[in-house]
Specification:
35% helix; globular; DNA-binding; Rossmann fold; Topoisomerase I, domain 3; disordered C terminus; single chain; Topoisomerase I, domain 2; 4-stranded parallel sheet
DNA sequence: CAGTGAGCGAGCTTCCGCTTGACTT
């Protein structure tokens, strides 16, 4: 083509949210198209003020998000070269708003620019092509719903938080999502603490027929389920059945189909990764992000999985074809005639596919050498879940046999897998169930009883929330989004509302105080159904074009009145958190108190602000011979480092440990014990002295009580 | 597995939801 060298050919510009996505799409579209990424929202309310004019129809004031000016500039620069612009942000409420804001910015600079909105729900060449061929207008109803959501969250957060500053402590926060999450955790804590485990016993019979031994359990006695609550009663039963005949009364056979699970959504991935590997949601997302962005395999950089923040189990047709071909080739016989279909969740916005491998033929083992161990584990999880989701169900036979012994009925059962189905694709996810095998028996047969024993159990109460279970609960109630599940937990921990100990999330005293205050004063907002009712209203804005200002106004007027009332009348509980200590101030003689600061707890003079004396919380005596120092919590330089424990006499004394000290002295050497935990032993305490091997594992009963 | 060292309270703090990096808060 004869063109001046300095006059570049005009292109079509596509704007998406994720840079990794931009790269992929660029490959699909090739020359003639430029693809650039906004990296999420570019415009938002400023953080420093409410920025909503409540007197004037809740008019929001938007600014360019700090740090995003460069990206906006880049987009405008690219736009200059473009003939047409396609706004291709995600196909959901937030995506629509992102497109809308970018469009406005573009029009300010290029009033005549041809700008169109396109949407696609999967990143495949055909889906992109189709989207480009059928451009649309921005859906202003969706934009309005997002705006209403944003404004409501700002109003709730920025009106409730100052109440906490005034009544409890500066710097605290409250919000539609975090406060309800906190409530769930507080209530669960209470249930766990209120639960009293009840002791009960089961009677197990060791039975034998020929060479085959198996166990059966007493399930009925004189027509009723036996209630055995202590050792003595268990012994009575054992004595009663000892030496008696066990005769087969009934043999039941049942076939069971186990269907594979749907491919991962974000929350399901976080849950599986937490239960399988013990990863926090944040860690899971960090690893998943690297798999999504791309890993060097040979000389190639390959994005191994699809987008990781999704609420959908849907997969692209091309992916379905690929996985079916893969199954046909590698697991012949396990390919169902028709694809397995998974219904999308009711609350799913469905902008993205499920999380799946981008290339199913890249099996975990084939890429193992290019991955870190953590990447490998997570990729295996995703790959196995995806491949198995399109395979045949597992068929198994459950045999249940009942034995009559005097007035007692003993039952045993065994499961045998007849057809392995999708289990064939599972390695990491393979079920660990071990099941006994039973001899073939028929009604009337008599078996030998070689032993009878009682087994002690305790009823299991509710469990503390974990990363996995709180996310599950929030998702079920429609609270939070895939991109916020991990940050929700982080914010509760950062604010000292919640602590995570051995994977368990427990509310702190501060968390409980905040929760009680909010539940008492704002029960509507603290209701777990609040978000659901907001969603319904947003839906009406989005689908029926109901006016968003009215929706916000109906919420705000009574809310605001209450805020004013609470601000004025609620009694301040500032200082309730300050704990008395045994220390007296060495500067002024007043007692010292333990307070919660920005970086954790510290000890300060109660004469503040008259006396500014303060010090760290001593956790234990320094064990170094001759050292009079105390062990205190410290952080690595640079704000957010990992906590460790060192001596107040540093640098004279360089004692250090990374495990939380207790003020319990080691009975062997006099050093203090530290808390540790691992999978095998659970919680335990060990001596910090590397030359001492003292270890204290928690007692059984104690654990049963705390297990919950 | 090895790894390491202020401050903090009153003085401006806080939301939820999109996206990724990061020397400054």
């Amino acid at each position: 083509m004869a063109k001046k060298a300095n006059k570049a050919k005009k292109i079509n510009l596509l704007i998406v949210e994720s840079p990794a996505k931009a790269k992929t799409i660029q490959k699909y579209l090739g020359n003639g198209y430029g693809v650039t990424a906004s990296i999420g929202h570019l415009f938002d309310l400023p953080r420093s003020r409410l920025a909503i004019d409540v007197e004037n129809n809740f008019k929001p004031e938007y600014i360019t998000i700090r740090g995003k000016a460069k990206i906006l500039k880049e987009i405008l620069k690219e736009a200059k070269k473009a003939e047409r612009i396609f706004l291709a942000s995600d196909n959901d409420r937030e995506g629509e708003a992102i497109s809308y804001h970018i469009r406005n910015a573009l029009l300010r600079k290029f009033p005549d620019m041809s700008i169109m909105r396109i949407v696609f729900n999967e990143i495949t060449p055909t889906a992109i092509q189709k989207a480009v061929e059928s451009p649309m207008e921005i859906d202003i109803k969706k934009v309005n719903a997002q705006k209403a959501r944003r404004i409501l969250d700002r109003l709730v957060g920025y009106k409730l938080s100052p109440i906490l500053w005034k009544k409890v402590k500066n710097g605290l926060s409250a919000g539609r999502v975090q406060s309800v999450a906190l409530r769930l955790i507080c209530e669960r804590d209470r249930e766990v603490e209120a639960f009293i485990p009840r002791e009960y016993w089961t009677i197990e019979a060791q039975l034998k027929k020929g060479k085959k031994a198996f166990t059966a359990q007493l399930v009925q006695y004189r027509g009723e389920k036996p209630e055995i609550s202590n050792y003595e009663d268990a012994q009575k039963f054992i004595a009663f059945f000892k030496g008696k005949d066990f005769r087969v009364q009934e043999v039941k056979e049942k076939e069971k189909l186990t269907r594979p699970l749907a491919p991962f959504t974000t929350s399901k991935l976080q849950q599986a990764s937490a239960t399988r590997f013990g990863y926090t949601s944040r860690k899971t997302m960090r690893i998943a992000q690297t798999l999504y962005e791309g890993v060097n395999i040979g000389f190639e950089r390959v994005g191994l999985i699809t987008y990781i923040r999704t609420d959908s189990t849907r997969i692209a047709q091309t992916a379905l074809d690929a996985v079916r071909a893969f199954i046909f080739k590698n697991y012949p016989g396990e390919l169902p005639e028709k694809p397995n279909i998974y219904a999308p969740g009711k609350k799913a916005q469905d902008a993205h596919e499920a999380i799946r491998p981008t290339y199913v033929e890249k099996t975990p083992d084939s890429v193992k050498s290019s991955l870190t161990p953590e990447q490998f584990k997570l990729y295996s999880l995703i790959w196995e879940r995806f491949v198995s989701s399109q395979m045949s169900p597992v068929k198994s036979r459950i045999v249940t046999i009942e034995f009559l012994c005097e007035q007692g009925i003993f039952r045993t059962s065994a499961t045998r897998i007849l057809e392995k189905g999708f289990y064939k694709a599972l390695k990491l996810l393979a079920p660990k169930e071990k099941t006994q095998t039973l001899p073939s028996l028929s009604k009337g047969d008599i078996v030998e009883c070689t032993d009878l024993a009682g087994e002690q159990h305790f009823t299991q109460g509710p469990s503390y929330y974990t990363d996995a279970s709180i996310i599950k609960a929030l998702e079920e109630k429609g609270i939070g989004r895939p991109s916020t599940y991990a940050p929700i937990i982080s914010v509760l921990i950062d604010r000292y509302y919640v602590v995570r100990k051995n994977k368990k999330l427990k509310a702190t005293v501060l968390g409980k105080i905040i929760n009680d205050l909010l539940v008492k004063t704002f029960p509507e907002i603290m209701d777990v159904n609040f978000t659901a009712s907001v969603e319904q209203k947003l839906d009406r804005v989005e689908t029926n074009d109901e006016p968003w200002v009215q929706m916000i106004s109906e919420f705000y007027m009574p809310f605001h009145q209450k805020v004013e009332h609470v601000m004025e009348h609620l009694e301040s509980i500032k200082g309730v958190l300050d704990e008395e200590t045994e220390y007296t101030c060495e500067k002024c003689g007043k007692p010292m108190v333990k307070k919660l600061g920005r970086y954790g707890f510290f000890i300060a003079c109660s004469g503040f602000p008259g006396c500014m004396n303060s010090k760290a919380v001593p956790l234990a005596d320094c064990p170094r011979p001759g050292c009079k120092g105390k062990i205190i919590a410290k952080r690595k330089q640079g704000s957010r480092g990992k906590v460790f424990y060192g001596c107040t006499e540093y640098p004279a004394c360089d004692f250090v440990t990374y495990f939380p000290p207790t003020n319990v002295k080691c009975p062997h050497c006099g050093y203090f014990l530290v808390e540790r935990s691992d999978k095998k032993r659970g919680d335990y305490k060990v001596c910090v002295n590397p030359e001492c091997d003292y270890m204290h594992v928690q007692e059984q009963e104690e654990e049963a009580k705390n297990a919950g």
